Amino acid sequence: MRHLPIFFCSLLLSASCTAFANDRPNFLLIFTDDHGYGDVSTYHRSDAQTPNIDRLAAEGMLFTTMRANCTVCSPSRAALLTGRYADRVGVPGVIRTHPENSWGYFDPSVPTIADELRKAGYHTAIVGKWHLGLQSPNTPNERGFDFFHGFLGDMMDSYTTHLRHGNNYMRRNADIIEPDGHATDLFSDWTADYLRTRAERTDQPFFLYLAYNAPHFPIEPPADWLARAKQRAPNLDEKRVRNVAFIEHLDHGIGRVLGVLAETGLDKNTFVVFTADNGGSLPHAQNNDPWRDGKQSHYDGGLRVPFMARWPGHIEPGSRCDYAGLVFDLFPTLLELAGAEPAADLDAVSLVPLLGGEKIIAPRDLYFTRREGGLAYGGKSYEAIIRGDWKLLQNDPYSPLELYHLKDDPYEQYDLAAKNKNVFRELATALRAHIQRGGAIPWQEPAKKANR
Hints:
It is a single chain. This protein is an alpha/beta fold. It has helices at 6-13, 51-58, 73-82, 113-119, 183-199, 223-232, 238-264, 300-303, 330-337, 352-355, 374-377, 421-439; strands spanning 26-32, 61-63, 123-129, 147-151, 163-164, 167-168, 170-172, 175-176, 206-211, 270-276, 307-310, 319-321, 366-371, 381-387, 390-393, 402-405. The protein folds into two domains: 6-355, 3-Layer(aba) Sandwich (Alkaline Phosphatase, subunit A); 366-439, Arylsulfatase, C-terminal domain (2-Layer Sandwich), CATH 3.30.1120. Helix 5 (183-199) runs parallel beside helix 7 and helix 6 packs across helix 7. It is globular.
């Protein structure tokens, strides 16, 4: 029996947001942290084995040319959850514990994907890392999520103590909690609990955003996973083998989550997507092969991320797609599959046609920006833009722009800025327009008025 074309399925789904709740898919969005393209073994031979992530690709569609919206955490998450470039929602840089080193403020007026799906009748939940605000009005329950079980902050000082700068940011909704165990295991356990609860609610579809902290440093695999990796690969460098064990432990947690989906029968009508916020960190021995550089960089090692989607009966198993999209394209994609109408002013583009094997031919620029402090950045931003096969980029605010032709030079080895001045000027002009749009949005928390 042939599958219905995906666009026809979405028309059926949009017929009613309530009467046909059981016909609309559930959504499970698995989002990992600093997960390099080369650290998912379905893309190429790797010393890190990720059979559960690979299975999602084998049972669905593998995307080969997707990029994160930013080279670091907070901006990628802000873009993912709003369908808008991160500087247009107030998050050009990383939101941190200390205000003097925080470079974003998530605009409370912008609706999130959780807001929109909740309006469409979905139960909305996040398990894991938030990293878009530590206090009101920017906690998950205030930004569209019915349920939050996870970590408010940017990174954990340790995966077993769960603290950041001595602060406890672990929460169940608004309640401070002190769970025991490795954070990856906790997030997998909490996800399994949530899925079993939702399996009992056949009257309402759900959206679950599962945001693991792993494999973000500190690289802390459980001892048994590290021993197993060392036994299998005794000649690996210590830093690399710890990272391999860390990733394989993460993959095991994802496998447990997928097992609960199958156990409860939810897998039959759950759209599962796996991706990451940016490339891996090279100083921590993460792998972005074959792309140049890594986290924080606008070379493709910092931007290219694993991306795959599975939806039984709708996405052809083992299919591949080379569309050059951005992770925030999931925003209109999920809304369309839910039968909701995406806002007209989104920067993101729905991937729904691709899921059915069609093409998206409308050209668009891909824009990237990041603001950062310290002596290397000075609180300034640096940007990149891709137009067709051309990429113009900067990796810090003080270096000249570089120009690459990605079709002829996919590994970004030959800077053509001096040789192709017309292309350089064209992209630089387009880049300035993007910067102007983002510059109109405040990215610091408004000053609190003094009591009179």
